[in-house]
Amino acid sequence: MANHTQQIENSALPMLIGINSRRLAQQFAREQPNRQKAEQVYFNTLAICVVRNYLEWMGIATQVNAGDSWNPIARLASDVADLQVTGLGILECRPIRENQQICRIPPEVWGDRIGYVVVEIEDSLKAANILGFMNNIDRPEIPRSQLQPIEALLITLSGLRRQNLVNLSQWCQGIFEETWQDLGAIFSTQNIAYNFRNSPPDSQAEIEKAKLIDLQMQLGSQMVVLLVALTPEFDTMAVRVRLYPPDGEIYLPHNLRLALLSDQADTLEEVRSRRHDNYIQLPRFSGEIGERFSIQVALENAMIIENFQI
Fold this sequence. Notes:
Layout: H1 2-11, E1 13-16, H2 19-30, H3 35-57, E2 62-63, H4 72-77, E3 82-85, E4 89-97, E5 102-104, E6 115-121, E7 127-134, E8 141-143, H5 151-163, E9 165-167, H6 168-171, H7 183-186, H8 194-197, E10 207-214, E11 223-232, E12 236-244, E13 257-261, E14 267-272, E15 280-281, E16 285-288, E17 292-299, E18 302-309
Parallel strand pairs: 4-6, 9-18
Antiparallel strand pairs: 1-7, 2-3, 3-4, 5-8, 6-7, 10-11, 11-12, 12-15, 12-16, 13-14, 13-17, 17-18
Helix pairs in contact: 2-3
InterPro entries: DUF1822 (IPR014951)
Protein name: DUF1822 domain-containing protein
Organism: Limnospira maxima CS-328
C-alpha cells in the first residue's frame, strides 16, 4: 500500500489555478446561503476549472457551462462538480484540500458519470495537483492511495470515443446501428408534414437514415429527429444533415443549434432554427474514407453529440 501511495504522489499532475478561475469560484460561492455551502461550491468550481484546463491542454473539448455545476439552482441544491466532455459524457471533478487523504464522493453523483477525477487544491489556492482517476464509485469515501494514475482517464476517454463512432462506410454495405431508422419508421403517415419529410433522396445513390434524439431539458424532454444522408462519390462521400421536429409537431423549437464539428471539436459550420422553421440543414459537405466528424445538437443548456467516421 505504501508503494502504491508513493506512486500516486509521484504521478500527480501539478496545475496552476488562474485568477479567472478563482474569481469565478468566488462569484459562485457568494451566491450561497451559508459559509459551509459557499466553501463547498468554491472548491468544486476550482476542481472543475483545473480538469477542464487539463483536458483542453490535451486537445479534449469540454462544455463547462452545460453541467449542473454551472446551473445556480442545481448548484445550490446539490453537491455537484460535473464537467461535460464533448461527445463522450460527464466527468465528476472532486476536490480535496492539501494533504487530505480521503476524498468524499456524495452518493448523488454516483450515477451517470464516465469517471471521477480527484484534484488536490493547495492551501495557496493558486495551484492544484490532479491526483488520479476512478471509473466507478461504490462507497462515499475514497483514499487517495486507491486512485488510478491520470493516464487511466485518457485511456477511458479514448475508448469511449471509439465506441461512440457511427461508421458511415458500413451504411453503404447495408449495415446500420439499430437506433438509425428509415424516416417512415419515425413519422406516421398521418403527420401533416410527412410527405415533405419523406420526399425522395437527392439522388438514387443517396442513403438516408434518421435517429430520434432526446435533448433532456431540465424541465422536460425535447425530442428532435436527426437525418443523415450519404452519397458515395469517386474517392469521397458527400454528407447531408438535417433536423426535423418529432412526429406530431410542425415546427422546431426556436434557436435550436445544429453544428458540424471537426475531429478536434472545432465548429466548422453552424445553423440555428428561427420561429416556424419545420427543418434546418447544414451545408452539404464531403469527406474522405476514414475521416471523422461530429454533429452537435443543442438547445439552451442541453446538448447532444453524435460522432461519425466516413
